[in-house]
Design brief:
The protein is an alpha/beta fold and about 325 residues long. Bound molecules: adenosine-5'-diphosphate.
């Protein structure tokens, strides 16, 4: 009987997870393994909700958002009892190698699991739109989320310019401003509000007044949901108090940013990481996330692949400020 490699998606879904599943399944087959898809993350692992996958099982999914395996949270996996049931299912299914696609909660769970059951080898892939994990320059789904937000901003810019309005656009990012900053630079926003820097309404007012003096017809401010202003709706309130006669609108993009077809960047990233994860499992690696740094794939132990609170790229912050003249 061929050795088996299990694959699951855990936590929130992100665009490109399907491309990663495809890469894992096809590489596993290429190397002579039998791939097994595990549904609903650690919940499905505990319940034994899994099936063997074939090359055809992952046909036509590289361009699809979401995940064919479904994702999800699993309160039961937080307890040793839940993890023991998960282990028993892996035994029953004769799976010794596992790939988990998710964020830092997923990796924390995987680390707890291999502390208790070191005979199971586990590697992780960074599947989150937030791009805030240590050990990788890019997470699977970030580029797509930025492009979706950018598309929305381009559309809002048209109506903002036609109507002479100021739009505040809230993008995802509870703890990190990566999506907001990249979207602001690419969308030519007048300002960006992110959790990493203090929000100074006086300087935003100066930028807006400067624009109006030269008859600028529209203004866009990108707001990360975790900014201390409390999101786009509350930030709009603050600005309305300063400009009661100006038309100010707030738009919250929300989960729209997590759906849709992944960009070429995310598909390529997911394919690279998926292939390398199976190759490294095959070589015996365990307990680490496979990420990308300066276009090289690297392994970072789960204990270090946690949410990164690294500073935002100062050049990108300067670009927003300097180019919003
Ligand atoms: P993400 O992986 O996107 O950060 P979560 O934080 O929701 O998403 O984590 C996904 C799942 O990982 C949780 O529902 C839980 O089953 C498992 N998990 C998270 N943290 C731990 C932990 N400290 N110990 C064990 N399992 C955990």
């Amino acid at each position: 009987m061929r050795s088996r490699i299990g694959v699951l998606c855990s936590g929130g879904d992100s665009p490109g997870m399907n491309a990663a599943i495809r890469a894992v399944v096809r590489t596993a087959l290429y190397l002579g393994y039998e791939p097994v898809g595990i549904y609903r993350g650690y919940e499905g692992l505990i319940d034994g909700e899994m099936e063997t996958l074939h090359a055809n099982s992952v046909s036509g999914i590289i361009q699809r958002g979401g995940t064919i395996l479904r994702a999800g949270r699993s309160p039961r996996f937080l307890s040793p009892d839940g993890r023991q049931q998960a282990y028993q299912q892996l035994q029953r299914w004769n799976i010794q190698k596992l790939i988990v696609i998710g964020g830092d909660g997923t990796f924390r769970g995987a680390q707890d699991f291999i502390n208790e059951y070191p005979d199971i080898q586990v590697l992780g892939l960074p599947g989150t739109i937030d791009n805030d994990l240590n050990g990788t320059d890019w997470t699977i789904g970030f580029d797509t989320a930025v492009n979706i937000a950018l598309d929305a901003i381009d559309r809002l810019r048209d109506t903002a310019a036609a109507m002479g309005r100021l739009f505040l656009v809230e993008v995802m990012g509870r703890d990190a401003g990566f999506i907001a900053l990249h979207t602001a630079v690419a969308g030519g926003a007048e300002a960006v509000l992110v959790p990493e820097t203090p929000t100074d309404f006086d300087s935003i007012v100066r930028v807006l007044e400067r624009g109006w003096q030269r008859q600028k017809t529209s203004a866009i401010i990108v707001v990360a949901e975790g900014d201390e202003a409390g999101g786009a709706i509350l930030a709009a309130e603050q600005l309305r108090q300063r400009f009661p006669h100006y038309e100010i609108r707030a738009t919250v993009l929300g989960h729209i940013q997590r759906g849709g077809s992944p960009t070429a960047h995310d598909r390529i990233l997911a394919s690279k990481l998926g292939v390398v994860a199976v190759e490294r499992l095959h070589e015996g690696a365990t307990g680490a996330m496979v990420g990308i740094h300066c276009d090289e794939t690297i392994l970072t132990p789960f204990s270090k692949a946690v949410k990164s609170h690294s500073p935002l790229n100062p050049l990108l912050l300067r670009i927003v400020e300097m180019l919003s003249l």
